[in-house]
Structure formats: structure tokens, C-alpha cells
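Page 37, continued from 36.
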């Protein structure tokens, strides 16, 4: 967590520099020296405000999560409360377009995803993100399915989002948001048909 008093211009500058360096050399080779050089600051600034590389990595992950939350919340605000299918699509879309689809952001996500397996704080942040996604989905799905069905389908959609996102990030052509939406909507349509016949 950055210390109080960190100049507002410095924090985004360092987060952007961190993602740029991770994009270029990978997480393990993203040294304080390379990041500070990219940001045009001294290594002492990073150590002073973030306590070193790990603190800066945590702040970078938090910023990516904040941006995701802001994007999805803004999209949901634009839609009527009863437009459940549109709202589900807004949640899906928020994971695949804009800031989240930028190459350096996607590569940083991927690096953190693997790194969080062995890092308690990054793992906690990943769990917060997962719970937020499931919560958004379940709110909308409970209007279309019973509680148990909504829970199961929310996990299915979340798994599809993660899987499609991972494949897209590893693909040189990047993430295809429209294809992701088609695949997930196909799954959702099948669930709606299946449960309506019960």
C-alpha cells in the first residue's frame, strides 16, 4: 500500500511503468531498476513509497482491479435494473474491452494470476475480484433462475470468462470480445432453455 502523501501523479506513473516493464520482460525480470528507469524516477522513490518491488506490484494489481470495477459499475448504471440479460452482457463485456484488453494490462493480469498462487496478498486480491464477479452475476441471474441455479450458472459464466480471457491473452491476436460474448450467451441460452423445461 503506498504511503500517505504519495504525489498523485507519481502513483499512476509508476503503475503504468510497472505494466510496461512486465509486458516487455515479464514479472520475474521486472526489477525496481527497470521500473524506475521506465518511470523516470529514482529507485528510492519506489522503496520509500511502496517498500520495494512487492508493494508496487500489489498496488499495480489493485489499480487493475479498481479499473475493472469502475468499468463494470459504470456499464451497469447505464442499464435499467430489470434488463437482466443486458446487465449480464455488460458484466461480460467489462472483462474483455477497454483497459482490461490492453496488451500490457492483460499480460500483467496473467503474470499476477500465476504469481498469486504463491503470494498470500495477491491471492487475497484475486479472491476479492472473483467474489465481486460472482456477486454481480448472481444479482442478475437470481431474477431469471432460482438461487441454486443462479449460483451454478454464475460459476459457469465466471469460468468461461476466465478461460476465454486466458486463451485470448495467450493468442497473438489478442482477446476477441465479440466472440467471448457469443460463447457465453450460447451457454446462458442453453441454461435458460434447460431450466424452463424442468
Amino acid at each position: 500500500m503506498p504511503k500517505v502523501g504519495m504525489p498523485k501523479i507519481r502513483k499512476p506513473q509508476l503503475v503504468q511503468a510497472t505494466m510496461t516493464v512486465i509486458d516487455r520482460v515479464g514479472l520475474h525480470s521486472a526489477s525496481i531498476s527497470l521500473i524506475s528507469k521506465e518511470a523516470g524516477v529514482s529507485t528510492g522513490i519506489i522503496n520509500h513509497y511502496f517498500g520495494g518491488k512487492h508493494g508496487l506490484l500489489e498496488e499495480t494489481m489493485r489499480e487493475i482491479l479498481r479499473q475493472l470495477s469502475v468499468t463494470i459499475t459504470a456499464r451497469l448504471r447505464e442499464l435499467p435494473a430489470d434488463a437482466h440479460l443486458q446487465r449480464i452482457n455488460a458484466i461480460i463485456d467489462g472483462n474483455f474491452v477497454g483497459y482490461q484488453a490492453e496488451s500490457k494490462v492483460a499480460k500483467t493480469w496473467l503474470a499476477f494470476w500465476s504469481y498469486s498462487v504463491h503470494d498470500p496478498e495477491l491471492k487475497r486480491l484475486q479472491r476479492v475480484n472473483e467474489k465481486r464477479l460472482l456477486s454481480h452475476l448472481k444479482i442478475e441471474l437470481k431474477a431469471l433462475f432460482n438461487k441454486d441455479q443462479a449460483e451454478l450458472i454464475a460459476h459457469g459464466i465466471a469460468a468461461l470468462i476466465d478461460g476465454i480471457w486466458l486463451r485470448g491473452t495467450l493468442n497473438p491476436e489478442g482477446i476477441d470480445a465479440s466472440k467471448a460474448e457469443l460463447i457465453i450467451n450460447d451457454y446462458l441460452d442453453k441454461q435458460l432453455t434447460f431450466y424452463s423445461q424442468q
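The mean pLDDT is 90. Flag for discussion at group meeting. Residues 33 and 143 are 51 Å apart (CA to CA).
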